[in-house]
Amino acid sequence: MKKAILIGIAGLVLIGAIWFYFNQNQDTTFGEVYESVFNGSDISEVVIEEKLKNNFNSENEQVLDVAEFKEIIEQSSDMRLKESDMPPLNTYEMTIYYTHNGEEKMTAIVVGYNNTLQMVDGKFYTIESRNSLFELIYQEL
After folding, report:
1. Sign of the C-alpha dihedral, residues 23, 28, 32, 38?
2. Residue 108: how many other CB atoms lie within 10 Å
């Protein structure tokens, strides 16, 4: 009887450990996530919108030079990210116009002041290092 209980408990612990292993949030970097989405794409235009400003104010949008955008991405590529369920408190939205496999597309990266972001893959991420992307966008505007 005791042996069956011990085997049952060990089985539950094993199942719990396996479940935790496969359902834990994955660590990655901003550069890895960005490359997985935009690899092989040709970016034609980037518009940054500051969402905290009045929506009726046209000065809250700025077209960013593609070379400047790539520099911002490069400087932010080492940011450590962890998948999260928490959406960003919307501060900046980068709308990216690009061509992939001959098809024109548009998508956005949302950067929150609460050290979170939403990538174009639809996933939310918590930034676990310095939020250099937020800082660089802030400097740009």
Report:
1. positive
2. 15
